[in-house]
Design brief:
Length: 679
C-alpha cells in the first residue's frame, strides 16, 4: 500500500483474529481489512494461535517498559522467554532462571513481574485495542468461534468495536449474537463506508475490491499449505441455488467478471511474483465472460508450460521491512529467511553467516531488531543471492472451489486447456448429474487435461449406495480415458440450526455407523480416494469399499477396527472371517432388525442393558474392541498410510483439497481376554 496512506484523525490499534482451528486457506477477508486499515493509517496486528499467549505478549511489552526504567543495565529482551513463562504460569522456577539475585534492583523488578503475572491470571488487564475483527469459517467450528469472541471482549475498549464476519457469522448470525452479545456482519463488505461511515476517507473505499495484505501471514506461526500463490476471484457468487450450498446466502448476486489485473500487479510488485494462481470462484463457467477470463489469466503469465523462478525473498523482505508499515511481520520474515539461508550454506560460508547473525544478535528472535536485520543483510546479500533457490518450477492454475459440469462445453474445455490448470476440479455432488459429469471428464481428457479432482458430497439427500456408485464411476473413467481423478468424499453438514454447530449430523438415508465406516476407510488416506497406479491391479477404492454394492454394505456394517486394520483382523487374528460368518447368519434370522438398530446407532457401550438377546450380545462382542493404539501394527495399513503421506507432501494441490474431516485416533485391542473370546 505504498504512497497511498490516508491518515484519519487518530491512529487506531486494530487486532485481526482468526480462531485457532486448522484450515487450509488464509483469511482473505481479514487480508482485505488489513489493507483497508493501512489505507487509513491505523496500526494493524494479525493473530492466530493460543489467545492466552497473545495477552501474555501484550503484558510483556508493558512489563518491559517498566523493567527498563527500573534497571536499564539489564538486557531484559534476552530474558523474555522466562518472563513470559512466569507471567503465564506464576511458577517461581522461572524467576530463578532470570538470575536477578546479584542485581541492584532485583526485588523491585521481581515485584513488577509478579504484578503482571497476577494481572494475567486474574484477567485484570486493561484493553489493548481500539477495534477487533474476528473472522469465522465453517459452522461446525461453532464452539471455538464463540470462545474466541468471548475471550477478546476484555481486550477492546468498547465491545461495539468487535466486528465478526465470515461464513459462520452470516449463516448463524442470530445464534451467534445470542451466544456472544456481538451482532455479526452478514455477507460481503462490498459497499463504501460500511465499517467507518463517519470517516471521510473510508466513504471512498470498497473493502471487497482491495488487494490482499499478504504481510499479515508472516506475523503468525501457523503455516497455511498454500505456499507461493496468488488468491483472487474472477467472478463472485453462483447462478445455482443448491440447497446444500451457502454461496447463495454469502454471495447472493452473481458477478460474471470482476477487476483482477490491477490487484494482481500490485501484489506482484509488493510481495514478489508468486508461483501459482488459486481462484476462489464458486462458478466461473457460468460467466458469459469466460473467454475473457482465460485471456486475463494468460496475460498474468499463466500459460500452459510456463515456469517460475522464486524471486529473492530475503531482498523483498528487507525492502518491505524498510518501506512497509507492517514492521512486525517483516522482522519475523527476515529473521526466518536468514536462518533458512544458514541451513543452505556449508563450511566457511555457513560459519561466516552464523558469525554475522551472532554479531547482530539475530540468533534469537527476542533480540532481533529492524536495524540489525538491515545491517546483516548488507553483509550477507551477495551470499544469499549466490545460494538462494533458483530452480525453475512449473506454474499452475487451480479453480479451487470446483467447476460446474453442467456448463462445460467443448469450447470451454479447449480454453481451459490453454492455461496450466492442475488439477481440474469438477463437482459431482449427486448421481443425477452423471451424464453431464462424464461428458465433462471426457472433454477434459480430449484436450489433454489428465489430472482431475472433485468433492463427492454425501450424507445429504443421497443414499449410501450413491457414494459408492460415484466413486466407482471415477475409477472407471480413469481407466477409460487414461487419466487420474482424485475423489474427496465430503460429508454434508447443515447450514442452519443446532446440527450446523458440530459434525455429528446424520442424513435421512444414512446412520451413525455408516458415517463412521466411511470415515474409518478414509482415515488412512486423509480423505483421498485415489485411482490405481499402473503397478496396481486393483484400486484402493475396491480394496477399501468392496468390489460391489453387497461387499460395500458388508464393510459399512463391519466393526470399526476391522475396517481400518484389515490385515491384522483378517489375516493375523482371523476375526474378520468369524464376523462375516456370524454377520451372514444373523442377517437371515429374526434377530437382525434388533441387532441392526444397535449397530446403526454406533453405540456399543452397555450392550447388556440394550438387549437381553444372547445371540445379539454374542455377535456384538466384535464391536466392543476399542480404538486408540493398536499394539499389533498392521503393516499394510502403515504402508498405505506412508504412500498417501508421500502423495500429499509431494502434491500441494492434493493437500489443499483436504477437508480435515478425518481422525488421528487409531484403533486398539482393549485386552487379550477379549481376543480369546472371539476365537
Amino acid at each position: 500500500m505504498r504512497n497511498t496512506t490516508v491518515m484519519n484523525n487518530k491512529k487506531r490499534k486494530i487486532l485481526l483474529i482468526e480462531p485457532n482451528y486448522k484450515n487450509k486457506y488464509p483469511p482473505i477477508g481479514l487480508m482485505k481489512i488489513a489493507s483497508y486499515h493501512r489505507l487509513l493509517g491505523d496500526d494493524v496486528k494479525f493473530y492466530k494461535g493460543d489467545l492466552k499467549d497473545l495477552v501474555v505478549d501484550e503484558l510483556f511489552e508493558e512489563c518491559l517498559v517498566k523493567l527498563a526504567k527500573i534497571d536499564s543495565s539489564i538486557n531484559w529482551i534476552q530474558k523474555a522467554f522466562f518472563i513470559k513463562q512466569f507471567i503465564k504460569s506464576g511458577k517461581k522456577h522461572f524467576i530463578e532462571l532470570l538470575e536477578l539475585k546479584e542485581t541492584r534492583y532485583a526485588s523491585l523488578a521481581i515485584e513488577v513481574i509478579d504484578e503482571f503475572s497476577k494481572t494475567f491470571r486474574k484477567k485484570n488487564y486493561e484493553p489493548f485495542w481500539d477495534r477487533i475483527y474476528v473472522t469465522t469459517l465453517f459452522t461446525f467450528y461453532w464452539k471455538i468461534t464463540v470462545d474466541t469472541i468471548n475471550f477478546v471482549k476484555p481486550l477492546v475498549n468498547d465491545s461495539s468495536q468487535i466486528f465478526v464476519g465470515g461464513v459462520l457469522a452470516s449463516l448463524l448470525h442470530k445464534e451467534l449474537e445470542e451466544a456472544t452479545g456481538i451482532k455479526p456482519h452478514q455477507g460481503l463488505l462490498d459497499r463504501p463506508g460500511m465499517l467507518d461511515p463517519n470517516i471521510k476517507e473510508a466513504k471512498k473505499i470498497i473493502i471487497d475490491n482491495l488487494p490482499l495484505d499478504y504481510s499479515i501471514l508472516d506475523e503468525i506461526d501457523y503455516q497455511y499449505p498454500t505456499e507461493s500463490a496468488y488468491f483472487t476471484f474472477m467472478t463472485k457468487g453462483c447462478t445455482r441455488k443448491c440447497a446444500f450450498c451457502s454461496v447463495p446466502i454469502l454471495e447472493p448476486t452473481y458477478k460474471p467478471k470482476i477487476e483482477t489485473k490491477g490487484k494482481f500487479d500490485e501484489i506482484k510488485e509488493l510481495y514478489g511474483e508468486q508461483q501459482n494462481l488459486l481462484l476462489m470462484d464458486n462458478n466461473v463457467l457460468a460467466s458469459p465472460n469466460f473467454a475473457e477470463i482465460i485471456q486475463e489469466i494468460k496475460d498474468m503469465g499463466f500459460v500452459k508450460g510456463t515456469t517460475w523462478e522464486e524471486p529473492n525473498q530475503l531482498e523483498i523482505a528487507i525492502r518491505n521491512l524498510q518501506n512497509h508499515p507492517n514492521t512486525r511481520a517483516y522482522t519475523k520474515r527476515s529473521f526466518r529467511l536468514f536462518h533458512e539461508l544458514i541451513k543452505r550454506l556449508k563450511g566457511e560460508n555457513q560459519q561466516f553467516a552464523y558469525n554475522v547473525l551472532d554479531d547482530c544478535q539475530l540468533l534469537n528472535f527476542e533480540t532481533t531488531t529492524k536495524e540489525n536485520l538491515i545491517k546483516a543483510y548488507n553483509e550477507l546479500k551477495d551470499l544469499n543471492e549466490k545460494y538462494r533457490i533458483k530452480s525453475k518450477k512449473l506454474r499452475y492454475v487451480d479453480f479451487n472451489q470446483g467447476t460446474d459440469a453442467r456448463y462445460v462445453t467443448d469450447e470451454f474445455m479447449k480454453l481451459m486447456s490453454e492455461i496450466p490448470i492442475r488439477p481440474l476440479r469438477i463437482a459431482f455432488d449427486y448421481i443425477g448429474i452423471r451424464k453431464q459429469y462424464e461428458n465433462a471428464v471426457k472433454l477434459a481428457a480430449k484436450y489433454g487435461i489428465r489430472e482431475l479432482s472433485n468433492y463427492i458430497l454425501y450424507n445429504f439427500n443421497d443414499k449410501p449406495e450413491d457414494l459408492y456408485n460415484r466413486l466407482e464411476i471415477n475409477i472407471n473413467l480413469c481407466h477409460e480415458h487414461n487419466i487420474d481423478i482424485f475423489s474427496f468424499p465430503m460429508k454434508y453438514i447443515p447450514l442452519f440450526g443446532e446440527d450446523a454447530k458440530h459434525r455429528e449430523y446424520t442424513g435421512k438415508h444414512w446412520n451413525k455407523k455408516f458415517i463412521r465406516a466411511v470415515q474409518s476407510v478414509l482415515n488412512v488416506t486423509k480423505g483421498i480416494v485415489a485411482p490405481a497406479s499402473k503397478k496396481e491391479q486393483t484400486s484402493f477404492f475396491h480394496k477399501a469399499f468392496g468390489n460391489n454394492i453387497e461387499e460395500y454394505f458388508e464393510i459399512l456394517y463391519m466393526p470399526e477396527t476391522y475396517i481400518v486394520y484389515r490385515s491384522v483382523f483378517e489375516k493375523t487374528l482371523g476375526y474378520t472371517d468369524i464376523w462375516k460368518q456370524e454377520y451372514q447368519s444373523i442377517k437371515k434370522s429374526k434377530d437382525w432388525q434388533e441387532a441392526k438398530g444397535i449397530i446403526e446407532s454406533n453405540d456399543f457401550s452397555n450392550i447388556e442393558e440394550r438387549t437381553i438377546n444372547p445371540v445379539i450380545r454374542e455377535f456384538l462382542r466384535h464391536y466392543q474392541i476399542q480404538r486408540s493404539t493398536l499394539k499389533n501394527e498392521d503393516k499394510e495399513y502403515m504402508t498405505l498410510k506412508k504412500q498417501y503421506d508421500k502423495l500429499i507432501k509431494s502434491d500441494r494441490f492434493i493437500d489443499l483439497t483436504l477437508t480435515y474431516d478425518f481422525e488421528d485416533e487409531q484403533p486398539t485391542i482393549k485386552s487379550k481376554k477379549k481376543i480369546i473370546q472371539l476365537k
